[in-house]
Automatic annotation (TrEMBL):
Residues of the full protein shown: 245 to 615 of 615
Role noted for this protein: Catalyzes the first step in hexosamine metabolism, converting fructose-6P into glucosamine-6P using glutamine as a nitrogen source.
Species annotation: Curtobacterium subtropicum
Protein name, UniProt field: Glutamine--fructose-6-phosphate aminotransferase [isomerizing]
Subunit comment: Homodimer.
Segments forming domain SIS: 44-183, 216-361
Catalytic activity: D-fructose 6-phosphate + L-glutamine = D-glucosamine 6-phosphate + L-glutamate
Top-level EC class: transferase
Keywords: Aminotransferase, Cytoplasm, Glutamine amidotransferase, Repeat, Transferase
Length: 371
């Protein structure tokens, strides 16, 4: 009912507005004095010391959160991370042993493909940690340990606040593993914890500043195809932005790694093609910013209409972008957790502009409990 939506036009609008709170609640009690304390992992504490490999399994949006987590866990904890769709994982005879930590991610905790992969991993001797948003759901009950995301109940079929909370949970896990392995100094951990603590207010600012997205969506209501480009942590965000348009607005949308552009996707660019580009920070030590700006120039020269998501003060994108959505300054690993919010809003606004049911898209279920 309208009352449950707390005055919002849809559950999805309400849930996007709760993204900052989802972040704050997911770190609550898990960070203290510049350190991460994940007592959630106590049941697997001994075996965690031995972990030499992480495999993340999930479906849909949760799998994209997993890709994001891969960048953070590898960079901080120096443990190799693979991310695999749960329904592929179980049928390909994966190599697992007691030193493999399998991390399942599921908002509902009931997705059948993910549940079956969790059971399979445990049968093969791996330990399973689950990241879940639903207390007492089946997947956490079948796991060795659980990190609950505290995003609160998510009703809209397309996942929004749960995605961001899953990213935060994976970052907490990465910092916990880095602490165990000694791969980061206490000072380096404290810097990342400060970023985590600053995330919720920055996300609020991002959402407040992105009100122009509704106009953009109205202007694009007849669009038939949208591309999303991102690099490094911007890549899973490009995938997530595209998934939202498929799910909500029934538009053909694809996310690409920006470096892959010249290996195929650039052939899709014709005049008027709309391309969202998640632009890395000019302060990124990997110097990816000029590479992505040159991708923008290449597609612009072929007539693309570019909507850039870029950090405040980044002027290099201005000459080439038709629209710029701004995000506050953050370190590179934290930018995607800001950049995704305007994309969630855009998917919702485009569906609304097309007169579609934002909360209940056709053919989809909130939790898929069949294989
Ligand atoms: C369904 C939903 C998606 C969700 C996926 C995984 O397909 O429509 O929004 O990302 O399931 O759901 P889970 O509950 O396992 O995170």
């Amino acid at each position: 009912s309208a009352a449950d939506k707390g005055g919002w036009s849809s559950f999805m609008a309400k849930e996007i507005s709760e993204e900052p709170e989802a972040v704050a609640k997911t770190i609550l009690g898990r960070v203290h004095d510049g350190a991460v304390t994940l007592t959630d992992l106590d049941p697997i504490a001994e075996r965690l010391q031995q972990v030499d490999r992480v495999i993340v399994i999930a479906c849909g949006t949760a799998a994209y959160a997993g890709i994001l987590g891969k960048y953070a866990i590898e960079q901080w904890a120096r443990v190799p991370v693979e991310v695999e769709l749960a329904h592929e994982f179980r049928y390909r005879d994966p190599v697992l042993d007691s030193r493999t930590l399998v991390v399942s991610i599921s908002q509902s905790g009931e997705t059948m493909d993910t549940l079956m992969a969790v059971k399979y991993a445990r049968e093969q001797g791996a330990q399973v940690l689950s990241i879940c948003n639903t207390q007492g759901a089946t997947i956490p009950r079948e796991s060795d340990a659980v990190i609950y995301t505290h995003a609160g109940p998510e009703v809209a079929v397309a996942s929004t606040k749960a995605f961001i909370a899953q990213g935060v949970a994976l970052y907490l896990l990465g910092l916990h593993l880095a602490t165990l392995k000694g791969s980061l100094t206490a000072e380096q951990i404290a810097e990342q914890v400060a970023e985590l603590e600053g995330l919720a207010p920055k996300l609020q600012q991002t959402i407040d500043d992105a009100s122009g997205v509704a106009e953009l969506a109205k202007w694009m209501a007849d669009t038939r195809s949208v591309l999303f480009l991102g690099r490094h942590v911007g890549y899973p965000i490009a995938l997530e932005g595209a998934l939202k348009l498929k799910e909500l607005a029934y538009i053909h949308a694809e996310g690409f790694a920006a470096g892959e552009l010249k290996h195929g996707p650039i052939a899709l660019i014709e005049p008027g093609q709309i391309v969202f580009v998640i632009v890395p920070s000019p302060r990124d030590p990997r110097s990816l910013h000029p590479k992505v700006v040159s991708n923008i120039q290449e597609i612009r020269a072929r007539g693309a209409r570019v909507i850039a998501i870029a950090e405040e003060g980044d002027a290099a994108v201005l000459p080439f972008a038709d629209e710029v959505l701004r995000i506050p300054l953050a370190t590179p690993l934290f930018e995607p957790l800001l950049a995704v919010a305007p994309l969630h809003m855009f998917g919702m606004e485009l569906a609304a502009a097309k007169g579609l049911d934002v909360d209940q898209p056709r053919n989809l279920a909130k939790s898929v409990t069949v294989e």
